[in-house]
Amino acid sequence: MTIQITGTIEYIDIGTGTWAIMTVTDEQYEIWQPAPEEILQEGLKVSVTAKVRDDVMTMAAIGDVIEIEDFQIS
To answer: Domain residues for 55?
Structure first.
């Protein structure tokens, strides 16, 4: 399933660490690696088109895992 997300990039210091997008409605999505290096910046505002990866589990388990297909920095 492909979704559109607008939010802020966060680094979550849990386990080995992970990157996530937090939306204005407090939904959190874990970014599947490899992610575009340009967006891996704490506090960056982005809009992304992403595929929800139901077939992936992570150590952090902080929310749905997404694979970024396209992005725009706000």
So the answer is: 2-73
Cα angle vertex 73, ends 64, 62, to 5°? 20
pTM of the model: 0.91
Q: Cis omega (within 30 of 0) on the bond before 36? A: no
Q: What is the CATH number of the domain that holds 58?
A: 2.40.50.140
Instruction: Give the ranges where the chain is alpha helix by DSSP (H).
Output: none
> What CA–CA distance (Å, rounded) separates 33 from 25?
24
Number of H-type helices and E-type strands within the chain? 0, 5
Separation between Cα atoms, residue 48 and residue 58, nearest integer Å: 20
Q: What is the pLDDT of residue 51?
A: 97
pLDDT (tens digit per residue) in 6-47: 999 999 999 889 999 999 999 999 999 889 999 999 999 999
